[in-house]
Amino acid sequence: MAEDRRMDRRAFLQVSAGAAAAGFLPGPVGGLGVGSGEGAGEGVAGEGRFFQTAQPPQEPPPIPLGNAEPPAWAFQPYPGGTGALYERLWRESGMSPFERQPFQIEPWRGPVPTREEDLAFLPAHRLAALIRERHVSPTELTELYLERLKRYDPLLLCAVSILEGSAREEAQQAEAEIKAGHWKGPLHGLPWGVKDLFAVRGTRTTWGSAAFQDQVLDEDAEVVRRLRAQGAVLLAKLSTGEFAQGDNWFRGRTRNPWNPEQGSSGSSAGPASATAAGLVAFAIGTETQGSIVSPARRCGLSALRPTFGRVSRHGGMVLAWSMDKVGPICRTIEDCAMVFHAIHGADEKDPASLTLPFRFRRDVDLSKVRIGYESTAPQAFLEALRSLGADPKPMPELPRGGSNALDVEGAAAMDFFIGPQIAAEEASGEPVSEEVAAERRRARFRRGRYVSALEYLQSQRRRYFLMQEMHRIMEGFDLFVSGNGQIVLTNQTGHPAVVLPYDFGGDPPQPMTTVLVGALYSDDLLLSVAHRYQVSTEWHLKRP
Questions:
Q1: N or C end of the chain: which has fewer CB within 10 A?
Q2: Catalytic residue among 264, 291, 302, 322
């Protein structure tokens, strides 16, 4: 059993600093060589006397780093920079970029579902209407979902920690507030789950790794804090592939509810599996290079990967500071809009975050939206858009290329964990074959260590060209339809993407999905268009 890591970040840094000063941490500590300053090794003058130094004074050890501390700069996907972005938005809209409007939900109409299955699979915004009008209570929903989590988790392996005690307390509090007339909004009393990359005070945060299965971080992630402030009820920490890769974690492989012989893809595997199986009302996932889009497609869900920087990542495991994003995984697009409305906005603890307007429109006129499509776009989806008034046009060829950001930033973020292992291997003195050495260089979090600072910066300069070219192309389009979402490209450039089902097929049958990619910061329009399509179909209402 791994050692209990119950400490806050400040305590971690204090302990690490002491270890570094004592020589217990690998890597350069500083002050062990002579600098290039004047008089090094010769002497210093002071108060009229001259003191000969036996050796140059030692510099203090460098500040130890864990996983979360950001670099001195923050990635900004808009090529013109944040200031130009705000000025443009203010000028074009005539409104403050910081304006927020309440999220409205439609009232409940018709009979209230009585069967467990019917209630469990309702969209989150419909559950919100039932709660607001007191047809269903938060405690009833919480007990229903807790029972389903315990029943189906042994098959799906989607939950790391089921938080029965705290969930019941939060549900009881929400119920009392609503009875007293203090309804906080559409998330009040809704049970949800969060990917186990995010810290929740008093619970373990494993990052999907056996090495961290007893780690307890003494803080709440910002996304957890915001959803709790809205009265949402946290049911479970949901599985992630080890260190945010794939769908395999220390208990096994998280499975797709539509086909349990198949994994749910990664690395937001648990949030997708649990949402598709009707074990939570909605879930929060993350994406660096496909980890929201891929599992949402595999499990036939609706999901939003927001524009980079629109949701705070504070309290989540860092994989790449310039690529990590947080977004909702839901059963409908309107659910995604409702959750995103609550969690988006700037946070001083995440220097890459910013606040921009969000105006979800259920009745958007598709004839006025500039929609493109690439060669992988499903024809059935395009025809459905045309029947709704849209006029999709073929896209120019999209740019190709990428950067080494994921490798290098991942290596830096996980150096506190990988570095001591590498130092121990090197200190052992045992010969390592070239085959083993090559495999280590290819291994995740290791290969980025062999990239020079010059190579990294040159790669980021080329990434800027990629961003400029993508921005130039998107000036003629509000969004485009893609079969796969151009995951590598759009995660490099920070563009938002929405996943939604458009058909049903396969063996065994399950939803088929497509991806809409939007212009930067057009998350609201992207969701509005997807919603306009979705309410004309019933693909999203099918159940595994």
A1: N
A2: 291
- Looking at residue 312, the DSSP 8-state letter turns out to be -
Q: What pLDDT is recorded for position 402? A: 85
Catalytic residue among 265, 267, 403, 482: 267
Task: Please choose, from the candidates 251, 265, 303, the residue with its C-alpha nearest in 3D space to the C-alpha of residue 282.
Answer: 303
| Catalytic option among 137, 195, 268, 294 | 195
d(CA 167, CA 158) in angstroms, rounded, equals 17
CA distance 478 to 489: 17
CB atoms closer than 10 angstroms to residue 79: 17
Note the pTM of the prediction, 2 decimals.
Answer: 0.88
DSSP conformation letters of 24-71: -S-S--SSSS--SSTTTTT-EEETTEEE--SSPPPPPPPPP--SS---
Beta bridge partners of 306: none
**Token digits for 367?**
């004839």
Is there a contact between 518 and 478 (Cβ–Cβ < 8 Å)?
Answer: yes
pLDDT at res. 433: 62
Determine phi and psi for 218, rounding to 5 degrees: -90, 60
Residues with pLDDT less than 70, the chain: 1-57, 431-442
Whole-angstrom distance, CA of residue 281 vs CA of residue 279: 7
Active site residue 267: yes
In the numeric block, which tokens belong to residue 144? 């229903």
Q: What is the pLDDT of residue 435?
A: 59
Active-site residue 195, yes or no? yes
DSSP type of residue 457: H
pLDDT for 56: 59
pLDDT of residue 175: 98
CA angle 514, 516, 522 (to 5 degrees): 160
Q: Residue 147 region, left (φ>0) first, then alpha (ψ -120 to 50), else beta?
A: alpha
User: Is residue 144 within 8 Å of residue 115, measured between CB atoms?
Assistant: no
Count Cβ atoms within 10 A of the Cβ of residue 205 and give its class: 0-12 exposed, 13-18 middle, 19 or more buried. buried
Residue ranges in 344-452 assigned as alpha helix (H): 379-387, 405-413, 415-427, 434-442
Name the 3-class secondary structure at 482. Answer: strand
Instruction: Tell me if residue 501 falls in helix, strand or coil.
Output: strand
